[in-house]
Design a protein that fits this description.
The protein is of the alpha+beta class. About 25% of the residues lie in helices and about 25% in strands. It has one domain. α1 packs across α2. The protein starts with a strand and ends in an 8-residue tail after the last strand.
Amino acid sequence: MRFTWHIRNPKVLASRLPDVVREFRELLPCLPPLAGPGGEGAPLLGRGGVFFNGVKGQTGEDFSFSPYDLLSEEAHSYPHWWECDTEGKPYALAVATFLLLARDRAGEVLELRVAVKAACGKR
């Protein structure tokens, strides 16, 4: 699955991020095992953002979510879209869960898109 998101108002999202991270942490026992970026170490789940991947052998692109990169005036000069392709790995459930929580708590300041590819490569 390929997840794409756009943050329309980083200040609003940044103010709600601590609650999203807290709720996401509560759901970790229900999600596939996660590792830090690159499949190494522990996932990074803090006030500054969320950064994780699947565990070794089940990694795709790193999931990196932080609205704080957008708070400078320079960052607003063009639209920002982020993307994470989980390549169908189990941690896609964690990516979807986090993005849905963030969208629910932040409202329309977060726009989400999902592209689903079947195992045979068809859309």
